[in-house]
Structures are given as structure tokens and as C-alpha cells.
């Protein structure tokens, strides 16, 4: 095995999720294909290359799945977005309306700040220490 290619993120609406991940977080829409059952296969990936793990944006199909939207990891930080320029990306994301839950801080492992996506899932924006 070489890498984890996709992680499923359950969302309420495909188009609103695409807008958030592409406009606010700077991801790239890699795939958006209709499925025979009326669903869509929607994949967004960070950055320009294809070497990161992509997100499969999956619209909730039933009440059980809808109950997990925004709480897929029980309130813990469940996703980690690495950057090579923390200040640049923090400023860009803040200007795009991303909600940061704390002020940026410096840790032994790098610069970090917790933010939430449009559904409330918690993420770390992280620039690893050199």
C-alpha cells in the first residue's frame, strides 16, 4: 500500500460543500460525476498536485447519516491540512469566512490553529516545523 487516496466526508449538499472546499480552503475539484442512483461522485483535493489525500464529498442519504454531518469524529480534530506558509493560508482562509476556533499558536511540531468546516467538523491548519 502506498497511500490513503480518499476519505469520505458526509455533507448536506454537494454544491455548497464544493464551494466551501474550493473557494474557502483552496482545494481543487477533481471529479464530479453523476451516479445512476441520483447521487454524485464528488472528489476535492488540496493543492495543485495529486499527491495528497482527496475528500470524497458524499451527500447524506438517511437520518443516520444526516446525524453525523459535522460530527464525524465526535468533536475531535479529525482532519489535518498541511501548509508551507501558515500566515498566508490563515489570512486567506480568514478572509474567505473560515471560522477559526482559536488564535494561531506555535508548538514544537509547528504552527497550528483549529478551524471548522461549514458543517462543524474540526480541522488543524498546520505548518510542520522545519
Number of strands: 9
Kindly report how far apart the N and C termini lie: 27 Å
Low-pLDDT runs: none
Helical percentage = 10-25%
What overall geometry do the principal axes of the alpha carbons give?
A: globular
What fraction of residues sit in β-strands?
35-45%
Mean pLDDT, rounded to whole units? 94
Describe this structure in words.
The protein is built from 3 helices and 9 strands. The chain has helices at residues 14-24, 63-68, 86-95, and strands at 6-11, 28-34, 40-45, 54-59, 77-82, 99-100, 105-107, 110-116, 122-128. The strands form 2 sheets. Strands 5, 6, 7, 8 and 9 form a 5-stranded mixed β-sheet that branches. The radius of gyration is 15 Å and the shape is globular.
Could you give a quick summary of the protein structure above?
The chain has 130 residues and is α+β, with helices and mostly antiparallel strands.
Question: Topology of this protein?
Answer:
Blueprint: E1 6-11, H1 14-24, E2 28-34, E3 40-45, E4 54-59, H2 63-68, E5 77-82, H3 86-95, E6 99-100, E7 105-107, E8 110-116, E9 122-128
Parallel strand pairs: 1-4, 5-9
Antiparallel strand pairs: 2-3, 3-4, 6-8, 7-8, 8-9
Task: Give the key terms.
130 residues; alpha+beta; five-stranded mixed sheet; four-stranded mixed sheet; 3 helices; 21% helix; globular
Amino acid at each position: 500500500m502506498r497511500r490513503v487516496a480518499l476519505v469520505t466526508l458526509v455533507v448536506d449538499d454537494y454544491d455548497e460543500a464544493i464551494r466551501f472546499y474550493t473557494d474557502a480552503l483552496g482545494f481543487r475539484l477533481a471529479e464530479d460525476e453523476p451516479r445512476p442512483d441520483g447521487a454524485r461522485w464528488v472528489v476535492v483535493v488540496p493543492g495543485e498536485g495529486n499527491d495528497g489525500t482527496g475528500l470524497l464529498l458524499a451527500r447524506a442519504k438517511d437520518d443516520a447519516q444526516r446525524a453525523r454531518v459535522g460530527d464525524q469524529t465526535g468533536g475531535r480534530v479529525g482532519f489535518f491540512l498541511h501548509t508551507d506558509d501558515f500566515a498566508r493560508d490563515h489570512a486567506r482562509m480568514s478572509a474567505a469566512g473560515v471560522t477559526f476556533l482559536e488564535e494561531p499558536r506555535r508548538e514544537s511540531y509547528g504552527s497550528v490553529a483549529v478551524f471548522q468546516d461549514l458543517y462543524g467538523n474540526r480541522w488543524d491548519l498546520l505548518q510542520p516545523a522545519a
